[in-house]
Amino acid sequence: MFAPALIAGLMCATTACGSGTSQGAATWEEPSSYSYTLRSTEGERALIGTFRVSVEDGEVATAAGLDDSGRRVVGQNLDAVPTIGELLDELDQARQDGADTAEIEYATDGHPRRIVLDRDLRAIDDEAVYVISAYQPDAR
């Protein structure tokens, strides 16, 4: 009787059961300047594609679309490309709103590596998956 509950508890502890809590979350702070690559997929949203993003003073300074979708987004609305902090804000808002899925994975240095959102499992095309790679803090 206790074994299934213990196994489920251990599984939740190792995968964070959608809570996204991790030691990386407690130690990483968004620097004011950095660069990263964002691959944004899933759902029916404007922000679909792959981007190389440079952030200066907490704002997106430049963004380059690395595929056709990314180039289209950057050409139409550079403001649609987020900082990592804005992605974390979106995750926090989804959790506050009771999203069915609001998960995060962290890299070994503590920065977010992957965010998965699905506000309503029954809805079609409301998902968002963000993969963060090539993160490089500015060494100014």
Brief synopsis:
By secondary structure, this protein is of the alpha+beta class. The chain is built from four helices and six strands.
Primary descriptors:
six-stranded antiparallel beta sheet; 140 residues
Mean pLDDT: 85
- Oligomer state equals single chain
- Distance from first to last alpha carbon: 57 Å
Beta-strand residue percentage: 25-35%
Task: Identify low-pLDDT runs.
Answer: 1-24
Which structural class is indicated by helix and strand composition? alpha+beta
* SSE string: HHEEEHHEEE
Strand arrangement, major sheet: 3-2-1-6-5-4
Number of DSSP helical runs: 4
Number of strands: 6
CA radius of gyration is: 16 Å
Main sheet attributes: strand count, strand direction, barrel closure? 6 strands, antiparallel
As a percent range, the share of helical residues equals 25-40%
- Overall geometric form: globular
Structural notes for this entry:
- This protein has 140 residues and is an alpha+beta fold.
- The protein contains four helices and six strands.
- It has helices spanning 2-15, 23-27, 68-76, 84-96, and strands spanning 34-41, 49-56, 59-65, 101-106, 112-118, 127-137.
- Strands 3-2-1-6-5-4 form a six-stranded antiparallel sheet.
- The model is unreliable at 1-24 (pLDDT under 50).
